[in-house]
Write a structure and sequence with these properties.
Elements (H helix, E strand, L loop, with lengths): L3 H7 L20 H14 L15 H13 L2 H15 L8 E10 L7 E2 L7 E10 L4 E8 L8 H7 L16 E4 L6 H9 L3 E4 L11 H14 L7 E2 L4 H21 L3
Parallel strand pairs: 1-5, 1-7, 5-6
Antiparallel strand pairs: 1-3, 2-3, 3-4
Helix pairs in contact: 2-3, 3-8, 4-8
Length: about 260
């Protein structure tokens, strides 16, 4: 079920559909019920066509279309920004550092933004590229093919951080420092991060483990564990990248909302 707190934040962001005056057709299912169906698929990983109709969430295709339309309207992005602003207003975002990392998921049906994964015997897969604040709250997420190098998405992730409001002054979208593992070791990107006024703390290849970066980077591993706690995200079943990305952004909203709930 959708909590009242989450629904109160989401409902104003949903696009309103105008019904025809003549021959309006069947009345559409309420958005809140459809959202419950989308969340049911996200949590359980069930296929759309097997969504039980007796639950009252509508058909799987109805939920799929509504997820697609809401994603195209930017609903999940705006909801995420609303939640981040509330956390920022409560001084619960750690802007002293951000953490980046990626995670691979297999893509059984292929589709766009997939590629042969070097960590999965060349099978088709996708990568989830994530950036969080110092507490592990998701700031932005991207989807690429499984063969894309992590470091190529470093700057796009920084650019994807939205302007976060909630405090006096200009919206903030830049952390003080950036922590990353050896997969992001490249001096060219270090210099570009510095040019943005961000201090890079990136492990170097060939050095011994035990640099101490793990004491800061563990939060993003926990966030990935939270993301993959949603069964629909453990394996990519969608051929369309926008649908998979919609699930991923919705999951980030739910994690951010949980962070907000911890303030109570």
């Amino acid at each position: 079920m959708v909590s009242d707190e989450l629904w109160d934040r989401l409902e104003p962001l949903l696009p309103q559909r105008e019904r025809r005056f003549r021959y309006p057709g069947r009345k559409p299912l309420p958005d809140r019920d459809v959202l419950c169906g989308i969340l049911y698929v996200l949590h359980t990983g069930i296929q759309w066509e097997y969504l039980p109709k007796q639950l009252g969430f509508g058909s799987g295709m109805t939920c799929w279309r509504r997820l697609r339309d809401w994603n195209e309207a930017g609903v999940w992005q705006r909801l995420h920004e609303v939640l981040l602003a509330e956390l920022n207003a409560a001084a619960k975002l750690d802007w002293s550092r951000c953490v980046v990392d990626s995670s691979h998921v297999r893509a059984f049906k292929g589709g766009s933004n997939t590629g042969p994964s070097p960590v999965d015997r060349g099978r088709a897969g996708s990568k989830h590229h994530l950036i969080t604040d110092g507490h592990g709250t998701p700031l932005a997420v991207l989807v690429t093919g499984g063969n894309r190098n992590d470091v190529t998405q470093l700057l796009p992730l920084l650019d994807a951080i939205p302007p976060v409001r909630g405090r006096v002054g200009r919206p903030r979208r830049k952390p003080d420092s950036l922590f990353a593992d050896r997969g992001y070791d490249h001096d060219l990107y270090r210099n570009q991060v510095r040019e943005r006024g961000i201090v890079p703390a990136i492990a170097r290849r060939g050095t011994r483990h035990g640099t101490g970066l793990g004491t800061y980077r563990w939060v993003i591993e926990r966030t990935f564990a939270w993301l993959h706690g949603f069964r629909r995200l453990r394996i990519r079943w969608e051929r369309r990248a926008d649908i998979h990305e919609a699930f991923l952004k919705l999951a980030c909203c739910l994690i951010t909302h949980r962070q907000l709930g911890s303030l109570c």
